[in-house]
Design brief:
The chain has 425 residues and is of the alpha/beta class. It has twelve helices and 15 strands. Helix 2 packs antiparallel against helix 9, helix 3 runs parallel beside helix 9 and helix 10 runs parallel beside helix 12.
Length: 425
């Protein structure tokens, strides 16, 4: 993709005409056709069918059925939706449940894992993990009396690639749990799930994967990789909507051994007996807590349909083509302007977003949003993340976005903006 013709606008339109998933774009709300939306790795677009699903739920199920709605599908929604997500993460029914937030589910799974690993006192993660995940680990360690040491392995080549040699050396007979993000949130680096899981198991450690930046964009094989625990969010590539519930996975043979640290009525075996003593529900259901946000759950369930219809192999194939194309445009348009690539060049080691880095990255990001009608996101210290959602991002959008970035920098439009980051008050 190094020739002039392959970096032209016409070439991007040709790629769109050849795209077997192109028709899915029409199934999403695109209110401003001139907006280049490259932040689907933070919040997915709204599927049109979700609007009708929510309208029907509010008007008919809530409005007419009232409390009877619990008996017409609401109560079983976490399990039913979990089984649908299971097909996207390479596992079978009864091993995934949709509920709560990523942080709450991570807390539940970390505590459950550590309780299974009596006598082991080390938790291994990395400095590239999502900070909130690290905060949960720190809070759990404090809650359990400070007996667990959290080891964060470093990275190499500018915070792009984790130091795999260091990771292997840190996993030893004292390690209770290894927990990592499957796709790293800044650089898009994609871990080899099977290899790292086997590495942890070889030393007797359990593994917990955060799938937030991979589910819906990268094929995942939890069963084939023999993963112990996993979780992920649904408002990125799954398009579940702002604050949509997370999901968690516990391998079937670990479910009865594992205990959730939060005992609440949805995880109770016979919740409507209203007994005063807790007895856990069988299987994955005892990881439920309190009443779930039903409107959000049902919106997210509807949003899964286009992904299930397209299939993960086709989605991944387009994702790879998009990131390859974006990197080719980066080489031609942006590298000469002082940018560096903050993501792996090997497609097999990359998720569905790339990071472009620049010393003035924050100011560039601001001018893109405020003047150029391009919506990426910024991650300190210098990363502009460009997320490509295969169901609605077009190749011509990628070209247009890269060209607008080029213009913003070549014309020095960003120089009037302060490098001091704005805060929300």
């Amino acid at each position: 993709m190094s020739t002039d013709s392959q970096t032209s606008k016409e070439y991007s339109l040709q790629l769109d005409r050849q795209d077997p998933l192109a028709s899915f774009r029409d199934r999403f709300i695109i209110s401003d056709p001139n907006l280049i939306y490259l932040d689907g790795n933070s919040l997915g677009r709204l599927p049109k069918s979700v609007i009708e699903r929510l309208r029907s739920t509010v008007e008919n199920e809530w409005g007419e059925d009232l409390v009877g709605g619990w008996n017409k599908g609401w109560w079983e929604a976490p399990s039913r939706i979990g089984d649908k997500i299971a097909s996207l993460v390479g596992t079978s029914a009864g091993q995934v449940i949709a509920c709560d937030s990523v942080s709450i589910n991570l807390f539940k799974l970390v505590v459950a894992a550590l309780k299974l690993q009596t006598g082991r006192t080390k938790v291994v993660t990395d400095t590239l993990n999502f900070p909130s995940d690290l905060y949960i680990l720190q809070g759990v360690a404090q809650l359990l009396g400070g007996q667990h040491k959290i080891v964060r392995i470093g990275s190499k080549d500018g915070d792009i690639t984790p130091d795999l040699a260091m990771l292997e050396s840190e996993i030893d007979e004292k390690t209770a749990l290894v927990t990592l993000s499957h796709v790293v949130f800044k650089s898009g680096y994609l871990y080899d799930m099977a290899h790292i899981t086997e590495m942890a198991h070889r030393k007797g450690a359990l593994i917990l994967w955060d799938l937030s930046h991979s589910v819906g964009a990268v094929p995942i094989a939890l069963d084939a990789c023999n993963v112990d625990f996993a979780l992920g969010c649904t408002y990125k590539y799954l398009n579940g909507g702002p604050g949509a519930q997370s999901f968690l996975y516990v391998r079937e043979d670990l479910q009865e051994q594992s205990s959730s640290p939060i005992w609440a009525w949805w995880g109770q075996n016979t919740p409507f007996d209203f007994g005063l003593d807790y007895a856990p529900a069988p299987g994955i259901k005892h990881f439920l807590t309190g009443t779930q946000s039903t409107l959000s759950l049902l919106a997210m369930e509807e949003a899964l349909n286009p992904i299930l219809e397209a299939g993960m192999e086709a989605i991944r194939e387009k994702s790879v083509r998009m990131t390859e194309y974006a990197i080719a445009l980066y080489d031609a348009m942006l590298a000469p302007l002082g940018f560096s690539l903050g993501s792996p060049r090997q497609a097999e080691r990359r998720g569905s977003h790339i990071s472009i880095r620049h010393p003035d990255g924050y100011r560039i990001n601001r001018v893109l949003i405020e003047e150029m009608n391009v919506l990426p996101d910024f991650r300190a210290p210098d990363n502009i993340r460009l997320g490509f959602a295969p169901l609605y991002t077009s190749f011509s959008e990628i070209w247009e976005g890269m060209d607008r970035i080029r213009c913003a920098v070549a014309e020095k439009r960003y120089e009037k903006y302060s490098q001091q980051r704005m805060t929300v008050t």
